[in-house]
User: Fold this.
Amino acid sequence: MPGFEVFGAEEKKEIMDVLDTGVLFRYEFGEQRQGIFKVREFEEKFAAHCGARYGQAVTSGTAALQVAMTALGIGPGDEVITQGFTFVATWEAIFAVGAVPVFTEVDETLNMDPADLEKKITPRTKLIIPVHMLGAQARIKEILAVADRHALPVLEDTAQAPGARLGGKALGSFGVCGTFSFDAVKTITTGEGGMVITNDATLWRRMSEYHDHGHDHVANPGGRGGEGRSFIGFNYRMMEIQGAIGLAQLAKLDDIVARQQQNKAALKEAAAHIPGVTFRTILDEQGDSASFLAFFLPDAEAAAKVNALLTANGAGAMAFGENTWHFYPKWEHLLAGSTLARSGWPFNDAKGKKRVVYDPDLLPKSAALMDRLLVYQVPVKLPEERLRQITEALNKAVNY
Assistant:
């Protein structure tokens, strides 16, 4: 991780196909584009890779969440449950559709705790969004069982786990739909971009229309602008150059995952010698995208000492207990209810009355895990010299 490590002639060739036509827009211009529809082809091939019937490409993983939730009818008055260890985009998108995010604990998978999920469901709950964080599987089968008991849909946030599977089935294909990110540091990248997959034709049609200002995309003699519109939409269209890059990257995804699995195994072997170390629970090692190696020390003090030694030797790890992008108590703008809206929306209603207040101590189980957690991002290309440097640093941490 990430996919830009393997940029090459394949991406250039796909891009040149687009530039040779002069058409960057994903729709219309039939004669000029000479049958080249890169975004449409990317949608079809990505969905097929995931074992899904439909793919809807959009401008980002964040947009994918918003487009999917809109198609599902999520809006003001609804609660959407997600986890407190995720990228801010997950709950930003929930607020963006007018709903209220509710956060669960994570367990040692570093993903949604199904037991805590059950506790957080209320009559206002309308959707569950588990996140397959750091490239590996949430307990999606248990989460679906909880959801089924309460007749709730599940939307999988698979932004960090393209190529990952559980029992041979692609992550993102378990729920009613799954979302993916192709930003600059993802397993495969289009610079910016995202995708929603689903097997539901009605949901796909709604997403297709909503992401393009509500246009119904029915063929019409008037061309662009002559379509009908059943509801209002917005603009989240992916352009053809992004689709072209996506096609080349998708063709490399299985190889990327295989190489990451090999590199992760080497790093894990070195980390295993640290006294008291344990590793994140991976539900299906063969289906792990292996984009991250996550391990725990016995307590916060030990984790800090180990990481100080690793850093001093040029191989510092990520400490998510301190990370301000991914962990609930560090989201100061969420906890403070900070917004540019004069009314205080989305934390207040239109009249300025509080809709929601977040307690920084809401997720003690997750906080205890994060304080002990260290993480390495696993590259696709791991030079022997860099592997040796990390291994030596981990060896020096044995006597922390």
User: Anything to note?
Assistant: The chain has two domains: 3-252, 255-399. The chain has 14 helices and twelve strands. The domain at 255-399 is CATH 3.90.1150.10 (Aspartate Aminotransferase, domain 1). The longest helix spans residues 253-271.
